[in-house]
Write a structure and sequence with these properties.
The protein is mostly helical. It is about 70% helix and about 0% strand. Helix 8 runs parallel beside helix 10, helix 13 packs antiparallel against helix 15 and helix 15 packs antiparallel against helix 16. The longest helix is centred in the N-terminal third of the chain and has 36 residues. The radius of gyration is 23 Å and the shape is globular. It starts with a helix and ends in a 24-residue tail after the last helix. About 50% of the residues are buried. The structure holds copper (I) ion.
């Protein structure tokens, strides 16, 4: 081979056309695909939410058949959790972790490709699960995302599709988690010691462990469900010696830590954004890492607070109550660390920082209603009411979704090489934050007044508050058209971003991402940089 041919042979530029994406082993391209997929799913799940709010605008049944309504309740959750939030966070992990720790790529690039491409398959199955009941596929999956038997045993073919979708999503998550843990342990640049890693990397390290620990419990639970449905077992059927409550334990052993899977990456984003716009290093970096570890461990042992009403022993409910209230300690301390990072900093309020500050306020509020829900005798009253719906939307929309928005606006200049339109970013922030609060704040009150959740109809005395909530919901949904417009506008051009696209980034966030150009070359690091 001539030198020139050899050179071409070793040219690792992007392959052309569809092959670049379908066969991609490049962490940035895979990260981009994750983010695009998540955006599509966000609009799918959001569309369902808007239809749900439209149905609830006034009492009575006007738009959808009640079983289909419940099917949408199920798939709104599954699509948002597994389709939107987790893939968006995984997209950021793919983009940022190698660049932050000075690795040339993820440790297992082909596994990375597989992790991503499993997702569209699962999404197709989830959509089919909603469609098959219209074509003689039996009863819709009207269980909500918790899939409790016996209702989930009686559901039609849509339930089997949901089970296989969950298996596929679980495999994807576990493979991605193995990849992330392996990358963080083995691929750090010389000098990038554990306690120099950006908080976002730490957040994903804990998240990946959580996923590997809890996804198998869900996989086991839904597999047993599949066997009860088709192969004559009775794991969850009391008539055959089984117990439906067993499924609840398996589900929530996964389900509670899953909430932290959704929250932790966004806490990692806060740990990156807040120092940069305060122009100060993170206050108490090491304690923050330890609190994250403590939160991860504690999150694994509090699952049955979702099941106070099943008739557990007083000792068991007391244990789960105390454990759950203890969760407020690491979370509260993290929020204080972020507030102390801002204290006497040279703060500016660009879109990512606006989101970060709003998250602290609204997430603290979700923590307060969380303590209310943790208290057993009180929860007996709130259980399965709109109070719960209001609580977890306050936890997950600011705590997970807005954290990811902060990350998108913070890293968009790095990813695309262009600055987004700051005015439009701020308009989006205020529009979406106000609409979110109009939607969900009133739901606390209908919940306390006794409005049950997961039902397409309600009594007339809840009408006023539901009208307000529905107007907020439609506004909240529409704000995302502006979000999409800002993203597309930025990708297509604008003011070029510098490598260090934010003024305070070097002081606040010492990750190696700022040592490369914006946008970074196809392969960021040919030789690993050295951290001094
Ligand atoms: Cu929980």
């Amino acid at each position: 081979m001539t030198a020139e041919a050899l050179d071409n042979h070793h040219d690792h530029g992007p392959p052309k056309g569809y092959k670049r994406w379908l066969f991609s082993t490049n962490h940035k391209d895979i990260g981009t695909m994750y983010l695009i997929f998540a955006t599509v799913m966000l609009f799918l799940g959001g569309g369902m939410a808007m239809l749900i709010r439209a149905e609830l605008f006034i009492p009575g049944l006007q738009l959808v058949e009640p079983n289909f309504y419940n099917n949408m309740v199920t798939n709104h959750a599954l699509v948002m959790i597994f389709g939107a939030i987790m893939p968006a966070a995984a997209g950021m992990a793919n983009w940022m972790i190698p660049m932050m720790i000075g690795a040339p790529d993820m440790a297992l690039p082909r596994l990375n490709n597989l992790s991503f491409w499993l997702l569209p398959m699962a999404a197709i199955m989830l959509v089919m699960a909603m469609v098959v009941p219209f074509f003689g596929g039996g009863a819709p999956v009207a269980t909500g995302w918790t899939l409790y038997p016996p209702l989930s045993v009686q559901a039609g073919m849509g339930m089997d599709l949901t089970i296989f979708a969950i298996h596929t999503l679980g495999i994807s998550s576990i493979l991605a988690s193995i990849n992330i843990i392996t990358t963080i342990i083995n691929m750090r640049a010389p000098g990038m010691t554990w306690m120099k890693m950006p908080l976002f990397v730490w957040a994903w390290f804990f998240t990946a462990f959580l996923l590997i620990l809890v996804m198998p419990a869900l996989a086991g639970g839904v597999t047993m469900l599949l066997f009860d449905r088709h192969f004559g077992t009775s794991f969850f059927d009391a008539a055959g010696g089984g117990d439906p409550v067993l499924f609840q334990h398996l589900f929530w052993f996964f389900g509670h830590p899953e909430v932290y899977v959704l929250l932790l990456p966004s806490i990692g984003v806060l740990g990156t954004v807040i120092p940069a716009f305060s122009r100060k290093p993170l206050f108490g970096y090491k304690p923050l890492v330890y609190w994250m570890g403590f939160l991860t461990a504690l999150g694994l042992v509090v699952w049955a607070h979702h099941q106070y009403t099943i008739g557990m022993s007083v000792a068991a409910t007391t244990y789960f109550m105390i454990g759950t209230i203890l969760v407020s300690i690491p979370i509260g301390l993290m929020l204080f660390n972020f507030i102390f990072t801002m204290w006497r900093g040279a703060m500016t309020f660009e879109t990512p920082m606006l989101f970060a500050i709003a998250i602290i306020l609204m997430f603290a509020f979700a923590g307060t209603t969380g303590v209310m829900l943790a208290v057993v005798p009180a929860d007996m009253q709130y259980h399965d009411t709109y109070f719960v719906v209001a609580h977890f939307h306050y936890a997950l929309i600011p705590g997970a979704l807005f954290g990811l928005y902060a990350g998108v606006f913070y890293w968009l200049p790095k990813w695309t090489g262009y600055m987004y339109d700051e005015t439009l970013g701020k308009i989006f922030f205020w529009w979406t934050t106000i609409a979110f609060n109009v939607t969900f704040f009133p739901q606390h009150f209908v919940g306390l007044a006794g409005m049950p959740r997961r039902i397409a109809d309600y009594s007339a005395q809840f009408t006023d508050i539901n009208i307000i909530s529905s107007i907020g919901g439609i506004m909240f949904g529409l704000s995302h058209l502006l979000f999409l417009y800002i993203i597309i506008k930025t990708v297509r051009g604008g003011k070029p971003a510098e490598a260090k696209s934010w003024e305070g980034a070097q002081i606040g966030t010492p990750g190696l991402e700022w040592t490369v150009a914006s946008p970074p070359p196809f392969h960021t690091f040919t030789t690993p940089p050295v951290v001094k």
